[in-house]
Design goal:
Elements lengths: L1 E6 L2 E6 L8 E6 L2 E6 H11 L4 H8 L3 H15 L4 H26 L3
Antiparallel strand pairs: 1-2, 3-4
């Protein structure tokens, strides 16, 4: 199941995120599952857009230190060491999700 998530300036599909579970959402990459809070997801998307901690803090109206704390919590959850690895992880998790959704649709609607 998926829903549209509003990140600044765009809508994006997030995997396995029923609207009633907005506080915890699952990203899936391969067989691995990762639970991120709504704020962590938001910050991860902004990292993937290339924003610095300072710019993320300004956009979200929070302190730089709070962003750093979120980033420190996100990276171990997704096994990333750098911001680039985090962005790549996000892209891969979304691709894996879309491939699974396409396969499900094909099975439900055979030619």
């Amino acid at each position: 199941m998926s829903f549209l998530y509003r990140s600044p300036g765009q809508y994006s599909y997030l995997p396995n995120c029923p609207p009633h579970q907005s506080d915890q959402n699952q990203f899936v990459e391969g067989n691995e599952r990762c639970d991120l809070t709504e704020r962590e997801r938001e910050i991860l998307f902004l990292i993937a857009e290339g924003l610095t901690n300072k710019h993320i803090a300004r956009r979200l109206g929070i302190c730089d230190g709070t962003v750093k704390t979120h980033v420190r919590r996100i990276f171990p959850k997704i096994k990333a060491r750098t911001r680039l690895e985090a962005a790549v992880w996000l892209l891969r998790s979304r691709i894996d999700f879309l491939e699974k959704e396409i396969e499900t649709l094909k099975q439900q609607n055979p030619p």
